[in-house]
Amino acid sequence: MKAWRASLLHCLADPGEESDPSAWEYFEDGLLLVDDGKVVAAGDAETLLAGPAAHADVTDHRGRLLVPGFVDCHVHFPQLDIIGSFGAQLLDWLNQYAYPAEQQFADPDHAREVAAAFVDELLRNGTTTALVFGTVHPHSADAIFEAAEARDMRLVAGKVLMDSNCPEDLRDDPESGYAESKALIERWHGKGRLGYAITPRFALTSSPEQLAAAGRLAAEYPDVWIHTHLAENMEEVEEIERLFPDSRSYLDVYERFGLLRERAVFAHCLHMDETDRASMAGKGGAAAFCPTSNLFLGSGLFNLPAMRAAGVRCGLGTDVGGGTSLSLLTTASEAYKVLHLREHALPAMRALYLSTLGAAEALYLDDKIGNFTVGKEADFVVLDFEGSSITARRTAAAASIEEKLFALMTLADDRNVAATYVLGQQV
After folding, report:
1. Domain boundary among 362, 388, 413
2. Domain termination site, one of 341, 362, 383
């Protein structure tokens, strides 16, 4: 057995706006005990070292903070190289930056090179699980799965379905999209730590026939994920109203085609009403809160309190390349600002929850990842308070772990990620 000694922090439930102390555990001098890639115990170091960890091989990270691996609920790996592109509103940004970048993925070698770089960037930022968009090209999904598999990383991904209102060379059609997705499901879903997501880009770029084909896939494979965008931009919402006049709302479009269910994750969800939120919660769908892209593209402010009050599962998503960072610490900092603008709080512990256990719940993976309960997969991150001079000074002045964590959330970057572990192995 192996063990890691450090300050140890994880969430047991949503701490809420009041930062309920019963929703998380903290051990100033903690120990994480791992065997065969699974958590055996997590708790007070001296207690465990006198018992089950007595003969463990101990790695000493005292003075640092050990937390569960971060979980990214929405990100585009083909957009890695256009991160930080001068912004416009969503639809213009897609045409100017996203689509040209994705056209390059007709080349399988390019797809493999970007996929490998993308996965390494995730891990460098402490992200050990992600829900990932590919492109319309089936080999883009192959590339990201191969990169994740080589690193034993838990990852869910899929090829994009897109047959209208987009460049001609980024289109499939209802039947080819169905057949290619089906083949990818058979090849990758459930292989090791990998899962497949049926991935219509959004209703704007999928015909009713294609959405019906996606719904057919969802019925045939009830344990795969569904991953798409929803109500990100008002111009987009208005166009959906024009294209689908018989649907009550944008969400209703997906529901009518059998795409609202458990394991369905909808990115953004900015322009929704109470009926939509109740429907999403009732069917078990989840929302990815993507604050950096929502701010960068001027799309709107996510209503986390309303979502959680309705019972919707929520996790953070970086949404690169509209998003501006692959760091979930940075993403949490922007989420704090979004909620401030809505006159709500985002305490550090709730931000940690949205980046770990809450995100795992959104992906229906909380039986496997998200915290350090016994039997979970040992994906974790070692955060260094002294990774930069400013975080060293600020955390030294902090009076509590909540204050230290908030300082990391607002000030840290990849320099503060001392190590990332996947199944108990440093990557």
Report:
1. 362
2. 362
Q: Determine the Cα–Cα distance for residues 386 and 388; give it in Å rounded to an integer.
A: 5
Write out the two tokens for 190: 């459930």
**Rounded distance, CA 212 to CA 248, Å?**
18
CA gap 47, 382 in Å, rounded: 21
Residue pair 145/194 in contact (Cβ under 8 Å)? The answer is yes
CA distances, 199 to each of 11, 13, 266, 350 (Å): 30, 29, 10, 29
The CA-based diameter of the chain, rounded to the nearest angstrom, is: 67
Q: Residue 288: which CATH number?
A: 3.20.20.140
Give me 354's structure tokens.
């949205």
Extended strands (E) in 285-371 = 286-289, 313-316
Q: Does residue 192 sit in the same domain as residue 326?
A: yes
96 and 194 part of one domain: yes
Task: Cis check for the bond before 215: say yes or no (omega within 30 of 0).
Answer: no
Contact between 268 and 290 under an 8 Å Cβ cutoff? The reply is yes
Q: Count CB neighbours of 338 within 10 A.
A: 21
| Per-chain mean pLDDT for the chain | 97
Domain with 25 in it: 2-68+372-426
Does 80 lie in the same domain as 45? Answer: no
| Count of structural domains, the chain | 2
- Determine the Cα–Cα distance for residues 293 and 146; give it in Å rounded to an integer: 27
Q: Give the CA distances from residue 304 to residues 45, 144, 174, 178, 289, in Å, rounded to whole numbers and listed in that order.
A: 36, 30, 34, 34, 8
Q: Give the model confidence (pLDDT) of 338-352 as tens digits.
A: 999 999 999 999 999
Q: Are residues 43 and 99 in the same domain?
A: no
Q: Are 316 and 74 in contact (CB under 8 A)?
A: no
Q: What is the CATH classification number for the domain harbouring 47? A: 2.30.40.10
Within-domain flag for 367: no
Query: Using one digit for the tens of pLDDT, what is the confidence trace for 122-139?
Result: 999 999 999 999 999 999
Contacts for 336 with CB less than 8 Å, ≥ 6 apart: 346, 351, 409, 410
Is there a single domain that holds both residue 44 and residue 100? no
What one-character DSSP code corresponds to residue 137? S
Same domain, 302 and 351: yes
Predicted structure pTM score: 0.97
Ranges assigned E (strand) in 126-281: 127-133, 154-158, 160-161, 194-200, 225-230, 264-268
- Asked whether residue 151 falls in the same domain as residue 96, the answer is yes
Is there a contact between 403 and 99 (Cβ–Cβ < 8 Å)?
Answer: no
Query: Based on the domain organization, do 101 and 143 belong to the same domain?
Result: yes
